[in-house]
What we know:
The protein is of the alpha+beta class and about 260 residues long.
Amino acid sequence: MAKAYEKIADELRAQIRAGQLGPGDRLPSEADLIKSTGRSGPTVQQALRVLQAEGLIEKQHGRGTFVRRPRVLVRRANTRHQWEKNRARAPERQRKATGATEHDTGLAVDDLVFHAAYREIEASEEIAAAMGIDEGTMLVERSYRTRYRAERSPFNLVTSYLIRDLVKGNPELLDETNEPWPGGTWNQLHTVGIEIDRVEERVTARPPTAEEAQELGLPPGTAVLVTRKSLYDTDDRLVEMSRATLPGDRTEILFTTPLERW
């Protein structure tokens, strides 16, 4: 037999799925639900927690509880890497027309809000081991956040590391005000004579930290995917390493592997 909170959750869920409560609509207040259902405050709160854990509703501080709007899906396919390499040498007008986020989401440049922050750091023991460089090597650490204008949370949290000595030949690569850079990292490296030969990606899943959950606007219980991407050049040097934290509720990773015919 269904518990009282499950019955309340079932009724609200049915209203959402039937379109009686649409994306962005405010749910009745807890006081109104207590009155309409004849149940206690803790019972109503438990019902709302169930729906929030399912990603159907979200609480907005000081405003109330709303039906959660579907977030833009990001589809990251491994075929994007060849697309990025091809674009690295394309004319500037073509490079400015679209970027990796637009490629993965189907959105246009004007749909997006972009932010980048640079700083120079010494490689920690952990980063040095991951990149195969000496601890203390000077790096350019770059943080990126891109979001859809109609949403409050970014698509992902990205931190990238470049070896400063490899890119200092072009001082513009050390200046965050040149972002968003047409053609992205692949073109940036091309400007200093670096051609990418292969990409390695490691993907893991884990619960988010409290800070990640807040910044990404994750429903309770949602995991994140963490990708560590390494770019190697034609001399087999690791020339860039990045880490992207991806929200598990709106990210799809697609692997396409062409096979040789017999």
